[in-house]
Write a structure and sequence with these properties.
Elements lengths: L2 E5 L4 H18 L3 E3 L8 H11 L6 E3 L1 H6 L1 H11 L3 E4 L8 H20 L3 E5 L14 H6 L5 E4 L2 H6 L4 H8 L5 E4 L1 E2 L7 E2 L19 E4 L9 H16 L1
Parallel strand pairs: 1-2, 1-10, 3-4, 4-5, 5-6, 7-10
Antiparallel strand pairs: 8-9
Helix pairs in contact: 2-4
């Protein structure tokens, strides 16, 4: 059974104001871990102590290509101090041409080699734009997928659905052996209207048990309820209900 965590980007403003308080709330939800996209002005040592105080794990963490290329030692220290082995490229500016897509893939390949030389693993977190056809027919997804096994993946099933893919098919075919999966819901394909889990169109109840990742990481980029923390609490309850 996969373990459940929260992507702290979902409650980023609260984390900036009171990270220890947020972690305490996350533990109260029944989560076993968290994933960082931002650093919230904290050192890795501070984060490690806060996580330990709440009995939470951090199975992986987001970074950027620029950070990996500019100061890999800093990113390695963040991962090792907190205690995870998978660095994830969380986002890039979407390419506008096939040549730009291939340049991104070359940068990722070099970063993956450097990260592996440190004894860590590099993964890619997808959005919807990786699946768009560019000027020469290239998709960023295809040139990134060709980098396996040097590059691992953290599949975001909400973005896969928004891109027109079948998330259930991806869960069954590609999730085995992946460290984490993102669970988010959206109102419609072609838009960015985020919804609490089960209130959008992704249809997790039909396939979430097929996701074979070690962790299911709940994320809601923008709240559709009274506040981000309330949405996070409801998302956890909805996911636990689907997994019963």
């Amino acid at each position: 059974m996969a373990r459940i965590g929260l992507q702290l980007y979902s409650v980023r403003e609260a984390c900036d104001a009171d990270l220890p308080g947020v972690l305490a709330r996350v533990r109260e939800m029944g989560a076993e871990g968290v994933e960082f996209a931002l650093r919230h002005g904290r050192t890795p040592g501070e984060v490690r102590r806060m996580l330990s105080a709440e009995g939470l794990e951090c199975p992986c963490g987001h970074t950027s290509l620029d950070a990996l290329e500019g100061d890999l030692a800093r990113e390695e220290a963040w991962a090792r101090t907190i205690g995870f082995d998978t660095l994830i490229v969380g986002w890039v500016h979407p390419p506008q041409t096939g040549e730009q897509a291939r340049l991104i893939a070359r940068r990722v390949a070099l970063a993956a080699d450097r990260v592996a030389a440190c004894g860590l693993r590099l993964a890619w977190h997808n959005h919807e734009f990786e699946f768009a056809r560019l000027d020469d027919g290239t998709r960023l997804w295809d040139v990134l997928d060709a980098l396996r096994p040097s590059l691992a993946f953290e599949f975001d099933y909400g973005w896969l659905w928004q891109a027109g893919e079948d998330p259930g098919a991806w869960a069954r075919a590609r999730s085995k052996g992946t460290r984490a999966a993102h669970i988010k819901d959206l109102a419609s394909r072609g838009g960015r209207d985020f919804r609490r889990l089960g209130r959008g169109g992704v249809g997790y109840a039909g396939f979430v048990r097929d996701i074979a990742s070690d962790w299911l990481i709940v994320e809601q980029d923008e709240p559709d309820g009274p506040d981000a923390m309330t949405c996070a609490v409801e998302n956890f309850a909805a996911l636990r209900g689907m997994l019963r």
